[in-house]
């Protein structure tokens, strides 16, 4: 309990607000589970906290690694690992016990998250079910056909922090974690596969589907603007549960701390994994039929989730079984050392050098 309290204080979470969000009169919103673990996910009404039910084995892993997790989070303020705020257990009148963890909601933002990806760096079974895709769908590795270009110093900082984080998870014998990536498109009309089939509108020789009325009609498709952050400027919106340093943009403002200015929307504080402006480029398909290069302005939200799976005997058996049937490089169940190496290589391809 003291570690949980200390973590909440570290992220400036008021104890009364925490209790009201989790235990207040407002009903928690149940979310569909994106994984196969059988866990149930809930979201607090204020969108600040994600609640996930845990299996007893996961609780055991968390309690074992919690002191070292606490030291890691305290030491690395820019860590991208899931932020845990409380581990709780309740006993229902039936006598059944429920264990759950309270985490920070990575997608609590002023902006609309148009695409959500759960990325492991493996390929076997890593595609979403063939159902209608909407903004709440959890897409996977094989569904991602974009790479993202960041300001060079931001890319370096991101890769360095992810390497530090996965090395920590490797030392804890953890594998099967994911990069949760949320993408906000500044011009959501480009999300053609989201839209119902309609008459294409030619613009300068390109074919772009007109924006559906249900989308954000007030969003500007202008480029992303970085503005210097003044020391006395309190107008920028700070990312929730963020305690890391602001990012500096050396290429445009002379190594100054910057904010992201979105016309007609907000002025956002840019930090590692929070409110990060980027350029998304479409990766052409194998047939090479694309006639033009698709480039979009996006804002990214990302972090490392699902960090409670040990490489235990069950996973070792799964690895042995699937390795006989499939290429061992493509499966998720691999030892933590190989998993972390493959994960890092995948991240480098996802965020190529600019």
From TrEMBL:
<keyword id="KW-0418">Kinase</keyword>
<dbReference type="GO" id="GO:0005524">
    <property type="term" value="F:ATP binding"/>
</dbReference>
<dbReference type="GO" id="GO:0005886">
    <property type="term" value="C:plasma membrane"/>
</dbReference>
<dbReference type="GO" id="GO:0046854">
    <property type="term" value="P:phosphatidylinositol phosphate biosynthetic process"/>
</dbReference>
<dbReference type="InterPro" id="IPR027483">
    <property type="entry name" value="PInositol-4-P-4/5-kinase_C_sf"/>
</dbReference>
<dbReference type="GO" id="GO:0016308">
    <property type="term" value="F:1-phosphatidylinositol-4-phosphate 5-kinase activity"/>
</dbReference>
<keyword id="KW-0067">ATP-binding</keyword>
<dbReference type="InterPro" id="IPR023610">
    <property type="entry name" value="PInositol-4/5-P-5/4-kinase"/>
</dbReference>
<dbReference type="InterPro" id="IPR002498">
    <property type="entry name" value="PInositol-4-P-4/5-kinase_core"/>
</dbReference>
<feature type="domain" description="PIPK">
    <location>
        <begin position="1"/>
        <end position="351"/>
    </location>
</feature>
<protein>
    <recommendedName>
        <fullName>1-phosphatidylinositol-4-phosphate 5-kinase</fullName>
        <ecNumber>2.7.1.68</ecNumber>
    </recommendedName>
</protein>
<keyword id="KW-0808">Transferase</keyword>
<dbReference type="Pfam" id="PF01504">
    <property type="entry name" value="PIP5K"/>
</dbReference>
<keyword id="KW-0547">Nucleotide-binding</keyword>
<dbReference type="InterPro" id="IPR027484">
    <property type="entry name" value="PInositol-4-P-5-kinase_N"/>
</dbReference>
């Amino acid at each position: 309990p003291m570690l949980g309290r200390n973590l909440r204080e570290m992220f400036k979470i008021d104890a009364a607000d925490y209790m009201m969000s989790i235990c207040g009169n407002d009903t928690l919103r149940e979310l569909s589970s994106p994984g196969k673990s059988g866990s149930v996910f809930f979201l607090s009404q204020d969108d600040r906290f994600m609640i996930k039910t845990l299996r007893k084995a996961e609780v055991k892993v968390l309690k074992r690694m919690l002191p070292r997790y606490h030291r890691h989070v305290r030491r690395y303020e820019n860590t991208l690992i899931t932020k845990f705020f409380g581990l709780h257990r309740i006993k229902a009148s039936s006598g059944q016990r429920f264990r759950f963890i309270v985490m920070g909601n990575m997608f609590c933002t002023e902006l609309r998250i148009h695409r959500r990806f759960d990325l492991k760096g493996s390929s076997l079974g890593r595609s979403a079910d063939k159902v209608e895709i909407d903004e709440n769908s959890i897409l996977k590795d094989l569904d991602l056909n974009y790479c993202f270009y960041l300001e060079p110093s931001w890319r370096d900082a991101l890769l360095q922090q992810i390497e530090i984080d996965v090395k920590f998870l490797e030392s804890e014998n953890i594998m099967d974690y994911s990069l949760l990536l949320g993408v906000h498109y500044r011009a959501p009309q480009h999300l053609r596969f989201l839209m119902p089939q309609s008459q294409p509108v030619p613009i300068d020789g390109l074919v772009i589907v007109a924006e559906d009325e249900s989308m954000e009609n007030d969003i500007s498709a202008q480029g992303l603007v970085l503005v210097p952050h003044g020391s006395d400027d309190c107008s920028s919106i700070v990312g929730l549960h963020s305690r890391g340093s602001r990012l500096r943009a050396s290429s445009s403002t002379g190594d100054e701390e910057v904010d992201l200015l979105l016309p007609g929307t907000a002025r956002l504080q840019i930090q590692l994994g929070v409110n990060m402006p980027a350029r998304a480029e479409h990766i052409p398909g194998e047939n090479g039929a694309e006639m033009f290069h698709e480039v979009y302005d996006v804002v990214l939200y990302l972090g490392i989730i699902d960090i409670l799976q040990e490489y235990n005997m069950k996973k070792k058996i799964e690895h042995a079984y699937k390795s006989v049937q499939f290429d061992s490089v493509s499966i998720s169940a691999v030892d933590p050392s190989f998993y972390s190496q493959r994960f890092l290589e995948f991240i480098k391809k996802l965020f190529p050098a600019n």
